[in-house]
Batch of 2 targets.
Target 1
Amino acid sequence: MANMLSVRNLRIGATVYPPGEAPKDIEIVHGVSFDLERGKVLGLIGESGAGKSTIGLSALAYGRGGVRITGGEVLLDGEDLLKADKKGIRQIRGARVCYVAQSAAAAFNPAHKLGDQVIEATLEHGLMTREEARARALYLFNILGLPDPDNFGDRYPHQVSGGQLQRAMTAMALCSNPELIVFDEPTTALDVTTQIDVLAAIKNAIEETDTAALYITHDLAVVAQISDDIMVLRNGETVEYGPVQQIIEAPQEDYTKALISVRQTKQREARDQSQALLSVNNVSASYGNGFKVLHDISLHVPRGQTLAVVGESGSGKSTLARVITGLLPPTDGSITFADEDLPAQHKKRTRDQMRRIQLIYQMADTAMNPRQTVGQIIGRSLTFYFGLRGRKKKERVQELLDEIEMGSGFYDRYPAELSGGQKQRVAIARALAAEPELILCDEPTSALDPLVAEGILDLLMRLQAETKVSYLFITHDIAIVRAIADSVAVMLQGRLVDFGPRSSVLSPPFDDYTDLLLKSVPEMELGWLEKVLATRRMESAGN
Amino acid sequence: MNTVMEDGKPRRRPLKQRYPLTVLILQRLGLSAGLLLAVSILIFGGVEALPGDFAQTYLGQSATPQAIANIRSQLGLERPVTTRYFEWLGNAVQGDFGKSWASGNSVSEQIGKRLGNSLFLAFCAAIISVPLAVGLGMLAVHFRNRVPDRIINIISLAAISLPEFFIGYLLILFFSVKFGVASFPATVYDGMSFADRLSAIALPTITLVFVVLAHMMRMTRAAIISVMSSAYMETAELKGLGAFKTIIRHAAPNAIAPIVNVVALNLAYLVVGVVVVEVVFVYPGMGQYMVDAVTVRDMPVVQACGLIFAAVYILLNMVADLIAIVANPKLRHPR
C-alpha cells in the first residue's frame, strides 16, 4: 500500500533570543524520516524538547512561534507540502490534515458554540453543505460518546467538562473526513479516569473513520494502546523506530529501555507505621465563599516514612497541604505534630514549628525568586532558621548542593539558567536547608519528563534513608504511589475514601473509587485498553 | 465527572446562578444609582463647604451686614443644610435645578443649550478619536515591534503626556496666530450654519482627540495582541482559514469587550475633560459655564453642573461595564 504521509529527512530550525545576546538560529529537529499508511497510527514519543510537537505540526506545514521548516520533504500522497504556496497549504489544513491540541479548553474559541466550531473547517473548504456537516458532527458526537449528542453542539466551551472538550476537539478534527490527524498530547491534561474514556473514544473514532494519525505523547503506556508504530525521539533525533510490539517488548536502545523501566518500585513498605509524626484529626476546611473543600479528614504520616495522597484535580489534596502548613486554617479539627498541637494559623506558629515542616511545589519555576542566585535561595533558609552568615552559610550551601548532586558550580547561577529537574533539586535543597522533619511534596514531579522525575524520586528516597525525613507526597500518579509510598490516602471531592498501608490500599478488596483509579492507569502492556473496556462492558452487562 | 452531571436532578439553584446576566445588570444599575446619590451628597456638601459666600461676593466689600442677611434670607440660606439638600435633590430629580443666584434665570434652561454644545464637541472628538485609535492600534499590532509601531507609540505617548491646555495653546499659536487657518475663539451661537460650527470647533476637537487617543490606542493594541496569541487563533489557522476570516470570526468577538470598555471610559473622560479645553478656547459649553459660576459662588449652577458631569461619567462607565458583561459568553450562557 502506498504511503499516505512520507516525511523525508525533515529539518526544523528556530530563532532563539538569549537574554543579552544577539538572536541566533538553532536547529531543533535534525533529519527525521518516517512513513505512515492510510488508517494507521504512528506514535511519536519523547521528552519535552524532543521536537515531537514540532514534527507533528510540520504535517500541516506549520511552525509555532519562530519555528520554521528548513529542509527535507513532507509528502502527502506524494505531494510535497513544503513546496506548496500559502493557498495550497490552506486547502490542506482543516480539510486533508487536522490537528488536535493538548489543551482543548484553550483551543476552542470561547465566543462560539461548539457545533459551529466543529463544522467550521468543513464548511470553509466547501466539503459539505451545512446540513451534511451537522449530520456528520452529530454522528461523531455519538461515536465519541458525548452526552446528549443532539444538543451538544449548541453548547459553549465553558459549559462542558475538560474530557468532553477534548472529545469535541477530536470530532472537530474528524469532521472534514481528513486523511490524517495530528493528536498532540490529547489526554495529558486530563485526569486518569477521564483519560481512559477519551483514549477509548479516539481509538474507536480512528478505527470507524479509517483515518491515519500521528499521536504525540510523552507517555509510552498511552501510546502503546493506540499506535501501530512508535518512533522514540530525543533532542530532535530518532532514537528508535519500529512496530509497537517490538518497541514495547524488545526495545533495542538504552534510552527506550530506560523509558519502559521507569516507575518501578524503589522502596519496600515500612512495616511499623504506628509512630505518627503528623496527625490530621477530623479536619474540615472551607474557602472564603463558604465552599467546603475538605470534609472530616483524618490521617497520619509515620516518622521517617512516606504518605502518598492521591486524587484527581479538585479532590482537595493540595488544600490539605495548605491546611497543614497553616496557610488555610481548618474550620474544624486539629493537627498534631510530634505530639504537640499545631496552631491553626501559620502566623501563630513558632519559627521552630515552621522550620520542621517544609514544602516543595509542583512548579519550581514560580516558587523561586528569579532575581536570586541558587546560593541566595538556599542560603535564605539557613539565615532565617539558624542565623548562619558569611563563610559558614556558604559552606553549608555547598554541602546541600552536593547532597542534591549538583555541585558547587551552581552557587552563582540564576533559576533561569537551570533545567526543570535542576530547579526542582534546588527547591529540595532549600527545604532540606531547614533540616525539617516533614516535607510536603505537592506534585513535585508532575511537570517533569519521566526520566528526570525518576531522578528526583531517587533523590527524595535517598534523602529519606539518610535523614529520616518524612514525606507527605501529593500526586495523581498511581505509579509513583506504587514506587515510593509506605502508606496511601485516596481522596475524592474533598473526602478521604481510603487510607492505610500501601499493600492494603493497593490490593483487593478495593474501595470502589480506588479500584476505578487503579484500573484507569494505562499499563505498559499491549491490548491493555481493550481489556479494560471489555471488563467494563461485561460489568455493565452484568448489572 | 459526567455521571455527576448526567444524573443531576433539576435542583433549584440560587437566582444568581440561574440568571447571572440579569442579576449582574441589575446589580450594576443599583450600584450606579447609589453612586449618583453619594455623589450628590458630596457635591452639595462640597459646595456648602466652599470658602466665601455668594452674598459677600455679589454685594462687594462695603456691603452692610444687614444687606448680606437680606440676600441670604431671600435665597433661603438660613434654613438647615439637610432641608435645603432634600429640596434641591427632589427638584433635581424632576429636572429642575432652581434659579441662578447671579442672573435669576432657570439653571435647567441655561444648561440645556450649553450641555448640547459640550456634547457636540465631545461627540466630534469621539467620532474622530475612536476609529483613529482602533485603526492605529491594529496598525501597531500589524507592525508589532517594528518602526511604525514605535512611531505610533511615541507620538501617542507624547500627546498624552502634554496637558490639554498646553496642546490647546500650541494649536492656537500655530494654526490661528501664525498661519491663520483656524478660528479662535471657538464661539458658536444660534443660527450658525453646521459647516461654520464645525470649523469653529476644529481646534478644541483636535486637542481632545490628542488627549484620549493614546490610551485607547494602547489598550486596543494590547487587547488584540492578547487575543492573537491565544490557542484558538492557532486552531483557526490550522483549519485553513484565511487571515481576514480568522480575525473577523475568531479574534474580533473576543477583543471587542476590552476595546469597548476602554472606549467608553475615554468617552466619559472626554465629556468631563472638556472643561479645561472649553475655557482655553472660550467655547460656550458646560465647562465654561461651571468655571464662571464657581468664581461668583453661584451655587445652584455649580451643583447642577457637577451633578450632570457625575451622571454622565457614571452612566458611561456603567455602559462600559454592561457591554463587557454582555460580551462574556460565560455570563450570557451559564452552565
Note: The longest helix of chain B spans residues 243-281.
Target 2
Amino acid sequence: MSCERWRDLILTDYLDGEITPADRDALTAHVADCPACRHLLERAATTLVEPFQRLERVSPPPAVWEQIAAEMGIDPEVGKADLSRPLPPPCPRRFGTFWMRDVDARGDGGRWARPGRGRGFLVPGLGSAPRPGGAATHRHPAHRRHPEWRAAIPS
Amino acid sequence: MRTHGEIDQPVIERAKAGDARAFAAIYHAYAALVFSVALRISRVWQDAEEITQEVFITLFRKFAQFNFLSSLKTWLYRIAVNTALNARRDHLREEARRLVYQKTAILRQGAPDPAAQVQADAEANALLDLLPPEQRVCIVLRTIEGLSYQEIAEVLQVNLNTVRSRLKRGRETLLAWKQGEGK
C-alpha cells in the first residue's frame, strides 16, 4: 500500500475509530518505518479532532419552545411540566385527560387545538370538566377500560 | 459519542397521535441536538433558533409520515441538516454579527469557563468556515456529534464511501490551513 493510501486511512478510519484490527496492525507496522506518516498520525488528532471536541452542546432559549407551542396551538406550560415523571398510559381519545385534541362540538377530534379559534383543549392532569347533573366523570370503570383486569375483580 | 435523552417508541406513537405532552418530551430530548447542529452549520444564532423551530414544526406536520424505518434521531438530524443548509444558502450575514451572537449565546448558557468556551468556539468555527457545506456537515456530524459513518450515511442518504471521502477532503483542507498557519 502506498503512503497516499495510508494517509487516507489515517485521516478517516483511524481518526474516527472505524479502522479494522488488521488495518490497525498494518498501519502500526508502516508508521514504524515511515517518518512522514508517523508525523501525520501523531498530530492528526490534536489538529483535526480536538478543536471540535471542546465544543459544548448548546440548548436553544426557552422562547424557541414557546414559539413552537404557539404555532402548534399547545399550551407552552405543557413543556415545562415535570418530564422526569413517566407519562401516564394512553387512554381513548374521548375519555382522555391529557390529549390535546380539539374538543369542539363538531367532534372532528382529529385536529390539534389552535389558539383563537374558540376551541378548548384538555390540560394534562386536570381531567375533563364535570358533567351537568352530578356525573363527575365520563370515564368507564377501570375494569371496562382494561378488560384484562376483569379476572382480578371479585364477582 | 455524545449522549442525550432517548425517546422510546410508545412516546413517539403518542406524539404522532396528538399527545402534546409526548411531543414536548420529544422536543426537550432533542432540542439541544437540533439547535447545536443548526448553529454549527448556519453559524448564526438567530438562524439556529429559526431552524430549530422549523425542524420541530416540520416534525409535527409530517409526523404521520414517520414510519420507524429510521430512528427519530436520524430523521431529526436529516431535517436539521437540510434546513440549515437551505438557510445558509438563503442568506449569509456579516461575520461581526455572527461573533457577537456566538459570544452572547455562550455567556447566556452559563458555561463554567466562558472565556475558554468562547475561545474554543471561535477556533472551531474558524475551522468549519474553511470547508464547503457538504464537508462541514460531515465534520459536524462525526467529530462534534459523534455519529458513526453508517449513521452519517443514513442521515445524508449517501453511501459510506461518500462520507469517508468528504471527511478526508475536509481534513486535508484543515491540515493544509494549519500548515500554512504554522509558517
Note: The mean pLDDT of chain A is 65.
